[in-house]
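Entry type: protein chain
Record version: 2
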Amino acid sequence: MTQKQQIENHEELSEKRIVVLGGSSGIGLAVAQQVVARGARAIIASSNADRVEQAIATLDGKAEGYTLDLSKERDIQAFFQRIGDFDHLVFTAGDTLHLNALEATDLTKARHAFELRYWAALAAVKYAIPHIRKDGSIVLTTGAAGRRPQKGWTVAASICGTIEALTRALAVELAPIRVNAVCPGVVRTDLWNNMQEQDREAMYENRGKQLLVGRVGEARDLAHAYLFLMQEGYSTGQTVVVDGGAALT
């Protein structure tokens, strides 16, 4: 990419308003930080008020922060009515992963996972649509579990596969608004915080050695994929896999 092309890409986000649901930590915060660095204004929302406040402090005064319970449809509707028109919607919200053998799966927790990762995403899109400006886009988040599940990943794989199907369906229904998704592999985020630190670090190290790039992902690695899908203007209904080559190992 030439220097001129890099400048043009940065200008494509300059002065845009970008909503990041789940933007107070992890991949969502990395997206917010990168769009702000490119001259956009980030509007982040998360259920944790303290984390929202901390995230806003890292965004150079170029962001708005809201506490939002994504399990409540009316709250989602009110949020979009409150913030007004914007250009791009990014959905990265998710809770810690619950990976269990099927016989040990708590179906109440499994339903909650669908509530946040699927139903909340669908509600967000529904109520965002009237406020997305011309040439705007939506970027959802899925995961590698749907493409290459392992034992104990039944619920996670189901959710990821559902989001990919939702992405394709929304791209058709909402055209010309573009709808895409990012599919992360293993990334250092709070999603793994249900593991003991020692076990988590061992998992990162062992998994990284198995990957073609020699390490697990960082939130900033994934953020570039979201920015690409917002800026390039032509892809829709696509899922961009960013997994360090996991699908090939």
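Comment: The chain has eight helices and seven strands.
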